[in-house]
Amino acid sequence: MAGTVRSRLSLTTVLVLMAVAVAGCSKNPVTREREFVPFSTGQEIETGRKYYRPTQQAQGGQYKADPALNEYVKRVGRKVAKVSDRRLPYEFVVLNNGTANAWALPGGKIAINRGLLLEMENEAELAAVLAHEVVHAAARHGAQAMTRNLIFQVAQAGVALAAGQSQYSRYTNYILGASGVGLQLIGRRYGRDAEREADVHGMRYMKAAGYDTRAAVTLQEKFLALSKGRKPNWLKGLFATHPPSAERVKNNRAALARFPAGGKVGREPYDKALASLRAKQPAYEAADRARGEMAKAPESALGRVDKAIAQEPREALFHGLKGQIQARRSQFTKAVAAYDAAIERDGAYYEHFLGRGLAYDALGRRVEARRDLERSMQLLPTALASHALGHIVLAEGDRARAKTLFGNAANVRGEIGEAARRSLVMLDIADAPDRYVKTQPFLRSGQVLVELTNQTSIPLTDVAIHVEARSGGRTLPRRLSPTRLAARGKAVLASGIWYRGTDRINVDVRVLRARPAAAKTGNARPYRAYP
Ligand SMILES: [Zn+2]
Asked: What predicted TM-score, i.e. pTM, was given to this entire model?
């Protein structure tokens, strides 16, 4: 184990050193101060491009029920981006997420949740939030954070950086592989200096774009007041990465001297753009309550989600939630119908395909299940989809791909990871039993004995081994017959080989066979498919 850790450490060190050699020192595009960022602009843009889509997926996907609102936010974003100090391929999206949050990935990929839009009162406040995020991208704050992260990784020598992800628990528990990196990038604080820069230069951008800079002050005042209320929605969202403080309010007020108030406030266009979302708020609240109670009271949850759909039939999320509730009630045909409606409204959100794929699987419709699960994996790879897909390709006879899929899903913690590890063991043990049963020969009272250890959490049966002892030119082979091994259990087998001489004795042991005692590898789903 120590060797593994050391080699990872040196690899990461090499990466840092290479990055240092490539980039070196440069001037910050926003502050004009000299700084060290070991990433080129191209690398920043590439990072943003790579993680923008999966990070959106992991945060609820794009908000599509109101295309006009999306257009409006993009328009305000473009106005602010146009006056930024740095040309980047800026993009702005509204996410279908009720948590009050906004974020920027390196390279200018920016998102704002519908939950934050509801907290603001005018276009200048929206411009303040977007300008703040534009500065984070323009001033390379994300790239600086990546640098810190890289150095942190060196210090931690490959320890998993999963901490802090729980704030997005609904979406991210089961994300696989590199898709989670974007969440790490947006879930981290930039540091106080970066926040101050984003606030002050954000006001400069607001002014240049023609907005009333006072909105940056009123917004911070509002955030500070809200932080005292400790609304869970805020604690999970913007406050986690952008803690409000009296100091920020004071700094913004002081910055008004440099970037004086005046310019567009835009209350009316904002009210117009937000009218539909505000009016539909009761539907979103009903859906949130339905989600909260669907495990304990699925009938009541179904009633609530139907009400939400009646109020806002355009919202794909409500139809998807209905599919989830129907699946929990084991009404899989109805679940498929609800997911159909969701996909009709939003054909680019992984959860709908994942849910419909699992429902098809439960109905035994393997072809449709496979198609949907593959699509959900393209949008956002999850352990849930990977495990379910593994069982499907196994049923089709593709053992190698099933192993890969189970192996990927086995990397996550919790129920799904445990189920995937079991699936993987059950499949792999036939091919490589000695990977799972360890053997240790020893001598007692002149007889060669072998201790067997089941390294899995599955009871094993039919465990057969081959023992071969060589001593003084003689070879004594023995085949020891089937034994049961409890989960993580041990057993000692007597070989019947006796040793009384004074020569050296060499004993080789091979595991010939081992089978899971509960051999339900087929369509067994030892976990709830609808978390
Ligand atoms: Zn910030």
From this structure: 0.83
